[in-house]
């Protein structure tokens, strides 16, 4: 079986703007992310992004705009990411088991790529990320301090690079 690091997108890989990020000119990779992803890959982890993209169902932006941002993400991180799952749903419009803290995106990845949850991690910057990972028995790391009082991750880190050191040392 494979081991994997599941990654939230905004606030973990690219800069969180406090609003939907869908324009390429607003999509900025956080310093240290390419190095972190390379280190995780070299340590034998698959890299799977799981991202809520409710702005699509809200009509704020299109799938094509999101895919354009993901093309930048892949290019600027040397195509190390194995798969990007996104949930375009929002509870106002339709229920979804995929939207975090729902687990369907991670369940799909586990089934498709034969991932062992016990050997795998989730890195996110919101408690809905952490709760999603905990439901799937992944070891969790919360980036930043934005919601540090609202959930109990296994670890905290200032950045993906710092989180990566934790993952590799464990
Ligand atoms: Mg985020």
Can you give me a brief rundown of this structure?
By secondary structure, this protein is α/β, with parallel strands linked by helices.
Protein described:
There is one protein chain. The protein has a six-stranded parallel sheet with strand order 3-2-1-4-5-6, with helices on both faces. The chain has a single domain, classed as HAD superfamily/HAD-like (Rossmann fold, 3-Layer(aba) Sandwich). β4 (121-124), α5 and β5 form a beta-alpha-beta unit. The two termini are 18 Å apart. It is an alpha/beta fold. It is built from six helices and six strands; from the N terminus they run βαβααβαβαββα. The structure holds magnesium ion (MG).
Question: How are the elements arranged and paired?
Answer:
Layout: E1 3-7, H1 33-42, E2 45-52, H2 55-58, H3 63-76, E3 83-87, H4 104-113, E4 121-124, H5 127-135, E5 139-143, E6 155-157, H6 160-169
Parallel strand pairs: 1-2, 1-4, 2-3, 4-5, 5-6
| SSE pattern, N- to C-terminal | EHEHHEHEHEEH
Structural class: alpha/beta
CATH topology: Rossmann fold
**Major sheet attributes:** 6 strands, parallel
Percent helix among the residues?
A: 25-40%
Strand content: 15-25%
- How many domains, as an integer? 1
CATH H-level superfamily title: HAD superfamily/HAD-like
Level-2 CATH architecture? 3-Layer(aba) Sandwich
Distance linking N and C termini: 18 Å
Radius of gyration from the alpha-carbon trace, in angstroms = 15 Å
Which small-molecule ligands are present, each listed once?
A: magnesium ion
Q: Count helical runs.
A: 6
Instruction: Name the average pLDDT.
Output: 95
User: Can you list the strand order of the major beta sheet?
Assistant: 3-2-1-4-5-6
Uncertain segments? none
Tally of strands: 6
């Amino acid at each position: 079986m494979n081991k994997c690091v599941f990654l939230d997108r905004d606030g973990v890989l690219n800069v969180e703007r406090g609003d939907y990020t869908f324009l390429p000119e607003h999509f900025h990779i956080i310093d240290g992310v390419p190095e972190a992803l390379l280190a995780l890959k070299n340590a034998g982890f698959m890299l799977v992004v799981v991202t809520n993209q409710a702005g699509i169902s809200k009509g704020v932006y299109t799938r094509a705009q999101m895919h354009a941002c993901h093309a930048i993400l892949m290019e600027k991180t040397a195509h190390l990411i194995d798969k990007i799952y996104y949930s375009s749903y929002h509870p106002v419009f339709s229920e979804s088991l995929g939207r975090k803290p729902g687990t369907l995106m991670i369940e799909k990845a586990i089934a498709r790529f034969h991932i062992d949850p016990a050997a795998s991690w989730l890195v996110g910057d919101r408690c809905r990320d952490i709760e999603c990972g905990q439901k799937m028995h992944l070891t969790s790391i919360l980036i930043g301090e934005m919601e540090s009082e609202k959930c109990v991750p296994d670890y905290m880190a200032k950045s993906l690079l710092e989180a990566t050191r934790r993952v590799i040392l464990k």
